Amino acid sequence: MIKIEKLNKKFGKLIVLNQLDLEISSGGVFAILGPNGSGKTTLIKSILGMVIPNSGNIYYNGESILKKWKYRKNVNYLPQIANFPANLSVKELISMVKNLRNEPSNEHHLIELFGLTPFLKQKLGNLSGGTKQKVNIVLTFMFDNELIILDEPTTGLDPIALINLKSLINQARKEGKTILITSHIMSFVEEISDEIVFLLDGKIYFKGSINELKTQTNSSSLEIAIANLIKKQYA
Amino acid sequence: MLKILKYSIQDLLRSRWSYVYFIFYLLLGFVLLFLNNNMDKAIITLMNIIIVLTPLIGTIFGVMYYYNSREFTELLLAQPIKRNKIFIGQYIGISLSLTLSLVLGLGIPFVAYGLFKSAIIFDFVLLLIVGAFLNFIFVALSYNISLSTENKIKGFGYAILMWLFMAVIYDGLFLISLVMFNEYPLEKFALAATMFNPIDLSRILILLKLDISALLGYTGAVFKDFFGTSLGLLSSLGVLFVWVILPALNIVRKANKKDF
Questions:
Q1: Which of A82, A142, B33, B137 could be cross-linked to A136 through a Cys-Cys bond (beta carbons 3.0 to 4.6 Å apart)?
Q2: A87: which chain B residues are within 8 Å (Cβ-Cβ)?
Q3: d(CA A173, CA A28)
Q4: A85 and B82 in contact by Cβ < 8 A?
Q5: Given B69, B71, B259, which is nearest A52 (Cβ)?
């Protein structure tokens, strides 16, 4: 579904992505992991066309996406920091995104699921971080698209919301969608992901299932396995 | 693009500052008319205020809106919308809503005072057109600055410096150079130098229309001499238009290259 070839990205002198190659097949939950600053968000944003790579190419269903925008119709994205225009109310924001995308949506179910009904008329500027994140999730999941990209989706969520988020992800997986997730919460990753993509020094250091990763690093849990991988960078 | 434009206008129309700005012009209009009791004089005072103030407000609003809506812009960038449209939509949105504050804020007192029955209506309309141009120019310039500066405080600083340069320092340098090189023929230089500053250009444009030679000053006189009144008006409007188009194109160019 997504094919990335020799992707390079520098910010000034800092090389963030270095000749990165990656292929993500259709269907399943892929966790993109890596230490802070390893280029996870940059990779995701390159796929979305928000970051413009210095060289290399990205293909979505066989077509290059550089300088294109129509392919984003098939992508739902949850950004890392949920910060919306403070003057708008939750309801207005939702109808605005609906209006911009012009696709069928099922926001009512999600609003109820996350208990956002009492907040619908409130201004986004007055919401707490966790509530904003719930709005963010509603905006991401209300459209029915084949690719879902979640950047740190668990930030600020209470346990109930987290359970709901997991069930949403699981449901999307059942429907055969492709889900890319970055997270630092290993228990969350272990619970929901089918495959791990581990980024280090701007390259894919490991790609495979959680079990493969555990055997390769001789670790009993994912957390330790990842810690072992990260340690190699510090060494 | 129309959708983006609509939303940024909506967003700005809800913000307190648009109303503060609108009420400021409203009060200014009424106070000027009642103190002067004369539309001609009020227009000249108004010109002096508009020429300095609209660029300042345009600059501040442009920078403020860009930095405040950064995360929201990111949300838009992830939607199936072309990049150009997002930024041009926002740019036009800010400029239009500022122009709206200006036109309504000044329009209401002048209309109440009997603008439509007076001969001065064309001068007044020209004043508003120039104010609108200045809005569009300075919002574009400040958008350029904020697009190329990641740091909010720095961006604000550069933008204010830009305004200060155009509104005050430029004239100072211009005068110094006129005095220093007064042995040389300076007409062409003065003309060109005026073209390079939209604030000076607007001032001359309005003074040409008002036909007040005493206020024209050196550059105004050169301008009038060179172009004559009507050609002078047209050419300076044309240059103002270029001042809108070039920075706006640069917004597109910068936005297409930028990482978010």
A1: A82
A2: 11, 14-15
A3: 6
A4: no
A5: B259
In a domain, A162, yes or no: yes
Residues 6+ apart with CB under 8 A from B236: B201, B202, B204, B205, B208, B223
Helix (DSSP H) and strand (DSSP E) numbers for chain A: 8, 10
Please answer yes or no on whether A50 and B74 come within 8 Å at the CB atom.
yes
> Distance, in angstroms, between A139 CA and closest chain B CA?
10
- Whether chain B has a CB inside 8 Å of the CB on A68: the answer is no
Indicate if the pLDDT at residue B148 is higher than 90: yes
Rounded CA Rg of chain A: 18
Residue A122 has φ and ψ, to the nearest 5°, of: -80, 150
* Banded model confidence at residue A234, pLDDT cuts 50, 70, 90: low
Structural domain of A101: 27-48+73-234
Which CATH number do you get for residue A196? 3.40.50.300
- pLDDT tens for each residue of A182-223: 988 888 998 899 999 998 888 888 889 888 888 888 888 888
**Domain assignments of chain B as residue spans, ordered by start:** 2-257
Interchain contact A49–B (C-beta under 8 A): yes
Judged by average pLDDT, the poorest of B142-151, B171-180, B182-191 is B182-191
A197 within a domain of the structure (yes/no): yes
Crossing angle of helices B83-112/B2-14, nearest 10°?
Answer: 50
Comparing CA positions, the residue from B126, B167, B133, B102 lying closest to residue B245 is B133
In a domain? residue A54: no
Nearest to A69 among B71, B75, B80 (CB): B80
Does some domain include residue A65? no
- Provide, as residue numbers in chain B, all residues whose Cβ is less than 8 Å from the Cβ of A101: 79-80
